[in-house]
TrEMBL record:
<dbReference type="InterPro" id="IPR011333">
    <property type="entry name" value="SKP1/BTB/POZ_sf"/>
</dbReference>
<protein>
    <recommendedName>
        <fullName>BTB domain-containing protein</fullName>
    </recommendedName>
</protein>
Length: 354
């Protein structure tokens, strides 16, 4: 067990991270009054009627914080004790995430104010050059009160998350889990539903609902294109055709038949789309982004009844449809007022300490 001395006169020993690394927790010798001044949580914990308060029998004052990350805690203790050599100059996403988890737990986000902007620039620079893609960025934005960044990160979850099989979300073999890796493909994935710190407590419930509604809208385009070409009629012949090229009536039906057959062939020969149920979004394991890409490929490679019928192919219509969907407020302006208020409060806490 290693020991870091923050205050040689301190009589409080914090034992950090025993749950994370049972064989190598870190003990910090600190001044309890410094912690008391910094955090109301520590004030209550250390100087209230709790097990963590100072022993009355003069035995060593040791407080275990087994779930906290030692490196992040060391940085915060360095700030509290003016031991700035312990405070990292260059920041990584993982470390900033761990620091903010501790700040939120002990209600002391304001202590990182002098470093917050430079640390955030470091993390954003790493993301821009592709060094890291992590859902932790959403929580970082949430804790620092960056509303625009938080909304952008959550939107990625809505558009790029996927399940690992085609069972119903919440009842299937994946146990309702939702995965994300920054690309929408099942590789190196994060289990979003298994992360404790992302934002509001109900965030993943909302992401799952928005993802399903988005996928159902995309599936609705396919349903509509099929319905246009299979409208009810008599004698097995549709009442009207979807072909937009004026000319012989029978040519319109032939155009529809060719396009309809091409759609089904494209779906059946696509391993990601084969077996898809266009009426049940919960059975779709693909992300919304990947689903759109696969449909785009199907529509792009359709044939029709001669060159004069090229405009009957729904490829261009699908592109316009997707552009409208991607920019729709339902999947852009999904933050609730409570979310905005909480992030505004975080900004105020940080700015108040300037």
């Amino acid at each position: 067990m290693s020991e870091v001395i923050l205050d040689t006169d301190g009589d409080l020993f914090l034992r950090i991270g025993s749950d994370l690394s049972p064989d190598s927790p870190v003990t910090f010798r600190v001044d309890p009054f410094t912690l008391r001044r910094t955090s109301g949580v520590f004030k209550s914990m250390l100087f209230g009627p709790w097990a963590e308060s100072k022993p009355l029998d003069n035995s060593p004052w040791i407080v275990d914080l087994p779930e906290d990350e030692p490196t992040a805690f060391e940085a915060l203790l360095g700030i509290m004790h003016n031991r700035y050599k312990l405070v990292p100059v260059n920041m990584t996403m993982d470390l900033l995430f761990d620091i903010l988890v501790i700040c939120d737990k002990y209600n002391m986000t304001y202590v990182i104010t002098p470093w917050a902007n430079s640390w955030m620039r470091d993390v954003e620079a790493q993301c821009k050059v592709g060094e890291t893609k992590s859902p932790k960025m959403a929580y970082i934005a949430w804790e620092l009160g960056n509303e625009v960044l938080f909304a952008g990160e959550v939107r990625k979850f809505i558009f790029e998350s996927y399940t690992m099989d085609d069972h119903d979300e919440g009842e299937g073999g994946d146990g309702g889990k939702l995965f994300w890796d920054g690309s929408g493909e099942a590789a190196g994935q994060y289990d979003l539903t298994g992360l404790c710190h992302l934002g509001p407590p109900d965030l993943m419930k909302r992401v799952i609902e928005l993802r399903l509604s988005l996928i159902q809208v995309i599936l609705g385009f396919l349903q509509n294109e099929i319905k246009l070409r299979t409208g009810p009629g008599t004698g097995g012949i549709p009442a009207k055709h979807a072909c937009i090229e004026p000319g012989y009536y029978s040519a319109g039906f032939r155009c529809d038949d060719i396009i309809l057959g091409g759609i089904w062939r494209g779906i059946l020969t696509n391993e990601k789309l084969n077996g898809i149920d266009s009426k049940n979004a919960s059975q779709v394991c693909l992300s919304a982004n990947v689903l759109a890409v696969e449909f785009r490929g199907v529509f792009k490679h359709l044939y029709t009844y001669g060159d004069s019928h090229r405009d009957c192919i729904p490829a261009a219509k699908f592109e316009k449809f997707i552009q409208n969907i991607w920019g729709h407020p339902q999947w852009k302006d999904f933050l609730r007022q409570a979310d905005k208020d909480r992030m505004a409060h975080q900004r105020e806490k940080i700015q108040a300490s300037l």
